[in-house]
């Protein structure tokens, strides 16, 4: 009978531990939201470029899950989920009068504490 009680206690503790681990989500869990401060400028004049559209995906060439546009001052703030260490977001920037879309990979240095990250984008004038 004592062995049965010991086994039941150990099994109960293992179940509780598993539930606690799954509630934490492990390494791949989204840990909160962070801000990415985006500034777009002309690569020649260094003047701000407003009206730049950006799209966000989690894989290169992947499906976009979010988008935005910079203001007249060339600035935008993107607030998004903070992924696990090593995960990335792909930002594609486009505007008429500038060359092919420019893609930047921003590793979410945005951390669980909500630290802000700056992304400076130099738009290249072209056809």
Summarize the structure.
The protein has about 130 residues and is an alpha+beta fold. The chain contains one helix and seven strands. The strands form two sheets. Strands 3-2-5-6 form a four-stranded antiparallel sheet, with no helix packed on it. Strands 4-1-7 form a three-stranded mixed sheet, with no helix packed on it.
**What is the SS-derived class?**
alpha+beta
Unreliable runs, pLDDT <50, ≥5 residues?
21-30
| CATH superfamily annotation of the largest domain | Immunoglobulins
Please state the second-level CATH architecture of the largest domain.
Answer: Sandwich
Largest sheet: spatial strand order: 3-2-5-6
Topology order in helix (H) and strand (E) letters: HEEEEEEE
Number of strands: 7
Question: What count of structural domains?
Answer: 2
Helix content range:
10-25%
The share of residues in extended strands comes to: 25-35%
Q: What is Rg?
A: 22 Å
Would you tell me which CATH topology of the largest domain applies? Immunoglobulin-like
Count the helices. How many?
Answer: 1
> Major sheet, described briefly?
4 strands, antiparallel
Overall spatial form: elongated
Please tell me the overall pLDDT: 75
* CATH classification, class level of the largest domain: Mainly Beta
């Amino acid at each position: 009978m004592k062995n049965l009680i010991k086994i039941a206690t150990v099994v109960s503790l293992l179940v509780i531990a598993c539930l606690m681990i799954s509630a934490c989500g492990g390494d791949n869990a989204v840990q909160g939201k962070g801000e990415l401060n985006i500034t777009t400028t002309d690569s020649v004049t260094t003047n701000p470029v407003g009206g730049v559209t950006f799209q966000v995906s989690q894989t290169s060439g992947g499906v976009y899950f979010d988008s935005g546009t910079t203001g007249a001052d060339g600035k935008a703030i993107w607030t998004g989920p903070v992924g696990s260490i090593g995960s990335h977001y792909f930002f594609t920037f486009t505007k008429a009068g500038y060359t092919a879309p420019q893609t930047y990979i921003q590793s979410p240095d945005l951390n669980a504490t909500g630290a802000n990250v700056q992304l400076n984008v130099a738009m290249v004038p072209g056809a």
